[in-house]
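Lab notebook, bench 4. The sequencing result for the construct came back, and we need a structural model before the next group meeting so we can plan mutations. Quick request posted to the team channel:

Model the 3D structure of this chain.
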Amino acid sequence: MRVLVLGGDGFCGWATSLYLSAKGHDVVILDNLSRRKIDAELATESLTPIRPTPVRLQAWKDVSGRTIQFHNLDVAQDYADLLAMLNRYSPDAVIHFAEQRAAPYSMRTFATRRYTVENNITATHNLLCAIVESGRDIHVVHLGTMGVYGYGTTGDVPVPEGYLKIRITQPNGPDIEREIMHPADPGSVYHMTKTLDALLFYFYNKNDNLRITDLHQGIVWGTRTQETEQDERLINRFDYDGEYGTVLNRFLAQAAIDHPLTVHGVGGQKRAFIHLRDSVRCIELALLHPPKGKQRVQIFNQMTETHRLIDLAHKVSALTGAKIQHVENPRAEEPTNELIVQNDGFLKIGMAPIALDDGLMLEVINVARKYRDRIDPTKIPATSRWRR
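Done. Here's the predicted structure in token form:
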């Protein structure tokens, strides 16, 4: 397929672009390099040394013989250029990563709240408008989040894949059975933008018959894929800081420098997880199994397992000897929750999940130890507050 990857220079976007190119797909990256600019804003950087985009692309050509094209383009601002790209390349699919992806950053200041909404929602709407205006049949694959469902305790009721069966009681007639989108319960401005994305997808699917797959992804851990391991210049991001570092990667980086594992509150929060290698495989599976015709928005829960955060901390502690430190939780959330997730969709079409216990945690620790001199301990604490 010919695939446009919006946000292809970022953490998930870069790994996905290389994976799809290695599989023989024709990949074009559109990215405004905003994630690199945010590093400068926060006075931090990836634990792993990220090369300039032209160096990365040349390295990939050197090791694979394949070319990934790149265009510096802001999807939220450059609508005319985005439309021109769709008409120029006539892609079979567009993978949409071009959103500010960190919940803590979205809550950092009122400026970052506004930026997250203005960038994420406008980027999504521009893409949908441009596809309709182009008149082309393009499959949109969007990276969403499990956080759209919220993390309220649901007991033994599994979180379904996007849609919920309900029964409506009529005062003077039989009950009506319907299937609706699962109620949204965002926990941050970032998560709120993903729920608004879902409404945009619903409308453009209903009104303009756009074919859309929305992937509600769990927390990604790991940093290496088979493609990024082929050359040091291809190395992927490894965020360990309190704004962008996902919780397991942060624990593993902390362990690498003998820093206590910082657990928010009692650590009773239960979350869904997926390894980066599974994430990129799921993206391709979504490309290979698009919705057909006037089918409603296709929603997959892109995760492999659930863990309570304190249990993760104990796993890392047992593996490394790191101490555990409970700190104040800066988020507005319940101290504990239950979470059962359905992920039958991807299992049925070929996903073979990588589990935490498959030895890859040690691989991540080794990466962190290799670059431990690049860790700034002052950037480890989560400083963003959910409430004033």
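The chain has one domain: 2-379.
Will bring this to the meeting.
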